[in-house]
Amino acid sequence: MSEPVHxxxxxNNLDPWYGAYAARTAGLAASEVRALFAVASRPExxxxxxxxxxxxxxxxDLVTDAMSRVMREQGPVALQYGSGQGVEKxxxxxxxxxxxxxxxxxxxxxxxxxxxxxxxELFSKLFIDPGDVVIAEGPSYVTAMVIFKxxxxxxxxxxxxxxxxxxxxLREHIASLKAAGKRIKFLYTIPTFHNPAGVTLxxxxxxxxxxxxxxxxxxxxxxxxxxxxxxxxxxxxxxRSLESDGVVYLGTFSKTLAPGFRVGWALAPHAIREKLxxxxxAAILCPSSFSQLVISQYLDQAxxxxxxxxxxxxxxxxxxxxxxxxxxxxxxxxxxxxxxGFYVWLTLPESLDSxxxxxxxxxxxxxxxxxxxxxxxxxxxxxxxLSFCYPTPESIRVGIRRLATVIxxxxxxxxxxxxxxxxxxxxxxxxxxxxxPNMS
Length: 440
Ligand SMILES: Cc1ncc(COP(=O)(O)O)c(C=O)c1O
Fold this sequence. Notes:
Structural class: alpha/beta
Shape: globular
Largest sheet: 8 strands, mixed
Mean pLDDT: 92
Bound molecules: pyridoxal-5'-phosphate
Low-confidence stretches: 420-440
């Protein structure tokens, strides 16, 4: 049998369909970092790379009770297709969850999705045409950018500091994008316990950012998976609590319950909500009835707020362990001090490259995510994201000690072989201690 003509014409040795993929798949190539993570998942490696919630802190019987009750009382409904908008009762319950962050809304404006990741996909499908610009913090959530790029958007990064997105920088970026004739579609923001930067947008800046968006007719996509996971003090209220017409809000049960259910939601102005439902139906017909009913049952029966408190305590202890280990083993460097969520953003001395250093780190049995993963334009070489959510406090200390061995080894090598002009460790101390790192 002869080969189809197009395979011969456009394939390559590895993939006979190489030339057949849609242009939008260009950003879907697996990175070398991803390949390394396969190695990093070996048990002897301390992984500070992933963002997996510590689901073992969730008592198993809380989940099995909810599951068996659903099967006993609503089995045929749980096993059936359901509404494309999601189970009405669960939509009402999401209002209770959002009320904890100051948000008021109507259950009819909630659309249940397969995790907030799927809401990001649906929203992007609705709004992005090739060449449109999505404004995002720099750095930003890697898998949101994969989606934006798969719809052929350009991602424009606006810098942050310790108080989150910088309003003046946002104004400047909007002005120069407009001057260049670009079409800005929306602002994608993670204002609270940012992934990966670990910072939180200050209260004063929240209204300012919304004001800028309003003045420029820019829709805001607020992604808030971590807002309820604060350590001591509640963060400022969600952007959606200050503005309803210009904000689409994304929530999820992945971090406050468990990601295995794959249940999240969008709260959107009426017209957008309508389109989101149609897009949801077109993509998946309906979100999982079973998962939705189990979560609804759990919210009804279990002490879910108490469980969130348990998660907070777990993550707070891990964050404190990570920061104290950083202070002990890498006192010359700077890092963010998150007041909630899962992540610390570390800044390296100028001479180091977190991506180039990763293979050596994995060899030393510690893994992190290089900062370059969180920028669409290859920036972030001097940064890395350290996740404290999953490893135990003991492993975190071991991981940071190993990381210090790698970083100090790199600095010593550079100082030995690179001749003059390189930083010594004591010079780097002077440069990086003190003021908060610029995250641009
Ligand atoms: C900022 C951000 N958005 C969205 C998601 C996706 O979460 P979900 O499990 O709800 O799809 C994550 C997961 O880590 C995240 O960090």
